[in-house]
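User: My collaborator sent over this chain with a note saying "see what the structure looks like." That's all I know about it. Can you take a look?
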Amino acid sequence: MFGGKTTPEDSYAIIDHALDMGVNFLDTANVYTFGRSEEVTGEALKRNGKRARVFLATKVYNVMDPSDPMSGGNNRRHIIEQCDASLKRLQTDYIDLYQLHRPQSSVPIDEALRAIDDLIRAGKVRYAGTTTFAAWQLMESVAVSKEQHLNRFVSEQPPYNILDRRIERELAPFARTYGFALIPWSPLAGGILTGKYDRTQPPPEGTRVADAYLKNPAISKRWNDGALDVVEALRAYVEQRGGCTLSQFALAWVAAQSGITAPIIGPRTMQQFEDNMAAFELKLTDEDFAAVDAIVPPGEMVSPFYEADFGPHQHRI
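Assistant: Without extra context I'll predict from the sequence alone. Here is the result:
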C-alpha cells in the first residue's frame, strides 16, 4: 500500500511505529506502484535513521516499462539494472534480501543465480530469495548453486492462507528440510479473511475486492462462494471462541504453522497495522487448529492465490 493508497506521510508513520514495536523486516518490490513503494520505504528509513536495524527486502522480475520489452524478466541484464535502480530508490548501499518475484522458464536458473551471486560479491546484495516458486524449482536452484559454487537462495515467499493451503503438500516440507525461510504473502487472502465482506452486499468502494478482484479477470476467481462459505464458518468459530478478531485469528494461524518465518502484512492504515500486530500475541490451541482443518483440510485450496499448483504435479510456468 505504501506509495499507493497509503500517503507517504502515513507510510512513514506506520513504518516508524512498526520499528518502535520491534518489527525489523520490511519487504517491498520494484514493481509496487512502479518504484514508489521503494522510494517511500527508503525515505522513511532515511528520516528515522534506522536503516541498520532493518532487514530490507525487495524484488525483481516484473516489467517496469511497458514500452520496453527488455525491462522485465530474470535475465542478467534486468537483474543487475534493477538492483542499481532499487538501491537508488531505497537510498541504501545494500539490499539484505533480493528476491526473484516469479519463476521464468525461458531463462535458465543458472543465469539468474550467477547475476545475483555477482551482486552479492559486489556487496550490493547480502542474501537471495524467491517468491512463488514451486519446490522442484527451488530444488533445481539448490543443485545448480552447489554445482557452480554460487550463493544459493535462502528464502521463498509463497501465497499462503487458510483459503489456499497448497504449500503444505510439498513446498513447506522442502523448506524445512533444506533450511529455506518461508515468508508468506497474502496471509489474509487479500482482505477476504478480515470478515469485512458480506455476500448479500456489494464490496465497499475502495476495498481490494471492489478495486481488483471484481475488475481483474486474472484474480477474480479468488472471490467465490467457497471462499465466502469458509469465511462464514470461521467467523462463527472465532465469535464463539472470543478473544480476537477474524483477521487476527487468520494471521496467528499462518504464523504458527511449521516452517513459517514471518507472514507479510500489508496494512493500508495505522488502525489496520495495530489490529494485525495484535495477532502475534495470540496463542492458538489444538482445538483452534482442528477447527480450521475441519473447514479447510490440510493441503487444500478453496480460493487460488496463484495459478501454480504447489503440489506434486507442478508444471513449468
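A starting point for your reply to your collaborator: Strands lie at 25-27, 55-60, 95-100, 125-131, 153-157, 181-182.
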